Amino acid sequence: MEAGLLAIGAGIAVGLAALATGYAQGRIGSSGIGAIAENPELTGRIILLVAIPETLVILGFAVAAMIIVLLGG
Amino acid sequence: MLVDMTKVHVIGHRRHLDEVVARLHALHVVHLIDVTADHEVHLPPLGVDDEQLAELHEARLLRARIDSLLALLPEPPPVPSPAPTIDLDEIRRELDAVGPEIERLVIEMEELTAEQDNLPRHIAALGRLLPLLPEATITEGYETSAVLIDSHFPDVLAALDVELGELLDGNFEIISDRVDADTIGALIVFPQRRSQDVASLLGREQLSRVRLPQRFSGLPFRRALAAMQRRLDELPAELEDRRDRIQRLVAPHGSWVVASGQLAARMDQLAAVRLMGATSHTFVVCGWVPTPRLAEVRAALAETAGGSTVLLDSPPGQSDSPPVLLDNPAVARPFELFLRLLAIPVYGGFDPTLLMLAFMPLFIGIMLGDIAYGAALLVIALVVGRRFGNRPGAVRDVSRILVLAAVWSMVWGVIYGEFLGDLGHRLFDLEPIWVNREEALEPLLVLSLGIGAVHVVLGVLLGIWRAAVTAQSSKLVERIALLVALSGSFLIVLAVAEQLPAGFVTPGMVAVVIGLVVMMASGGAMGLVMGPLELIGALGNVLSYLRIAAIGLASVFLARVANDLGATAPLLVGILIGTLFHTLNLALGVFSPTIQALRLHYVEFFSKFYEEGGEEFSAFGGDNNADPPVEQLNPDS
């Protein structure tokens, strides 16, 4: 039971963070593609901008890992 | 590494302009700059005179004619060796003489090719319908039309029957049958005089009518089918005949290719004139030359125009912005692609290409970490590399980067004991040297954070070095303070995690406080906010390297899913399923780690030291010179 709850908690930590990242990347990505269509030289910068929200899901992953490693024993 | 640049001014008499410009163009070593942007030269731009403008017009026109004709050819004409002397009037006469004939033959070839592509479709459609057609229905004064109906809508046929009944007063016949799984073929026989009415009805109802090519449209279906088949058999010979005739016509004209190149060079040279300065009798070329090649330019100019030109050289001044030329060892050169994707460094800045060579394939290898995936990637990269090895470009560069990444993947595959995920363990008891990623999360997290700490600290150290070299004292203090605060944070974390004695917590906290205070003090009023944010940002940067563990875990569990799914099916089907999923995982396993490794460099690493925004060196006479509109060339025009 306890292990199940820990797993659900870890899943929520990653899942919600992934949703937030996806939302942010979707908006940045759609604008970014428009910008690249206008000026292909911006490709590198757009990759950089699209990649920035991934920190959210990585932090979610860090929280999930802490739940599993520290609480799950 | 960045190549040192020397500023040059070439001064000569105007009567030698063409000769000097042609020599510089052939050298491919001078980056021209606009005289109006050169603070050391206060001269008006030379511009092109009416004669040169007319020459440019002519060159453009002639080159466009040659190139458009060459573009039509299946194969370019062989270029004679040695290259012939080009007489442009002779080329014009040749183009007038054989150009129209070549164009006509090329158009014929295109029509024949289109016919060759289209006929099989008509033959197939007609072949399906013919069995429906009884010979007896083809009678004098009657016409037959064929339509294809989607078999999912059979009611259309009944509706068509009703509509035709009303239109033709029952004077028609429909024969229909299924011609394949999705299509019902229907032949409508009706009086020829009502042809227009039936065509209108079919068009109005948007029915897909089988239309024969113009050449066969008047024939009955059976004869049309036989005629189309005969025509299809004749086409290869006709195509070959046109190709031979074109090749015979162009074969003696290899000089066109040479002329096109010479005209392009001349257009480049005339376009460059607009950048030069002028006095009443002299011209001045302003530009940059890579310092190691300055002697080469000097020697070439000494042999040009009787050595009458003067070459002045000087190191870059404070107000100059020299172009940036990257010069790295061959093994590191492919990584310049990723540097250009972001922005090249400023002149005098630091070129991190060698560091990307050291870290990027390593990061990809740690994430992918599988012997079989690494081997597959190596084979793919080598095959692609061999195919594109002689053609500079992104594909060749990426293939070379992936070769290194594949080797690191195999190395880390041995360390993790992974061969197609856990298949190596299942089949031949492959054991990890260090850790099994499926079972031990903690060591992976520690490894990722360790790599992050090393990479970020290296970035901060480079930032300190750059600030010292460029004498930015405030930035230097701020970077050193950040390093102190970061080191303190690491001590605290290691002590709390019981990797260091508890006594390290106090010095760690002292280091963090000192670092923070110095950062806040060095940043002025904004420093109060930016100092703590800078430290939090740097710690966040280190945490960001957890993605190395996260992507690696995703890769290994996807591989396990592939193995588990494969194991549930019979042997051959299981191998097929496993192969499919492993291929998908390999594709993801290459794309995702590459993007993530790139992001770690761009965001976490470069932000500590990288000064971007240089203008890339573009040699006069190279491939990338622009061909500006004529009106920009002559300030008076």
Description of the structure:
With 73 residues, chain A is mainly alpha-helical. Chain A has one domain (2-65): Up-down Bundle (F1FO ATP Synthase). Chain A has three helices and no strands. Chain A has helices at residues 2-38, 43-51, 54-71. The longest helix of chain A has 37 residues, at 2-38. Chain A starts with a helix and ends with a helix. The model of chain A has no long low-confidence stretch (mean pLDDT 87). Chain B is of the alpha+beta class. Among the domains of chain B are: 116-219, Alpha-Beta Plaits; 333-608, no CATH class. Chain B is built from 20 helices and nine strands. In chain B, strands 1, 2, 7, 8 and 9 form a five-stranded antiparallel beta sheet that branches. In chain B, strands 4-5-3-6 form a four-stranded antiparallel beta sheet, covered by helices on one side. In chain B, strand 7 and strand 8 (282-290) form a beta hairpin. In chain B, helix 1 packs across helix 7 (255-272) and helix 14 runs antiparallel to helix 15. Chain B is flat, with a radius of gyration of 37 Å. Chain B starts with a strand and ends with a helix.
List the helices and strands and how they pair.
The complex is a heterodimer of chains A (73) and B (637).
Chain A: H1 2-38, H2 43-51, H3 54-71
Chain B: E1 5-13, H1 17-27, E2 31-32, H2 50-72, H3 88-129, E3 142-150, H4 155-168, E4 173-180, E5 183-191, H5 195-204, E6 208-209, H6 221-250, H7 255-272, E7 277-278, E8 282-290, H8 294-302, E9 310-314, H9 336-342, H10 353-368, H11 371-388, H12 394-416, H13 423-428, H14 441-469, H15 473-496, H16 505-522, H17 524-544, H18 546-568, H19 571-605, H20 630-633
Antiparallel strand pairs in B: 1-8, 1-9, 2-8, 3-5, 3-6, 4-5, 7-8
Helix pairs in contact in B: 1-7, 2-3, 2-7, 3-6, 10-12, 10-18, 10-19, 11-12, 14-15, 14-17, 14-18, 15-16, 15-17, 16-17, 17-19, 18-19
Please supply descriptive tags for the structure shown above.
heterodimer, A: 73 residues, mainly alpha, F1FO ATP Synthase, 3 helices, B: 637 residues, alpha+beta, Alpha-Beta Plaits, 5-stranded antiparallel β-sheet, 20 helices, 9 strands, 60% helix, flat
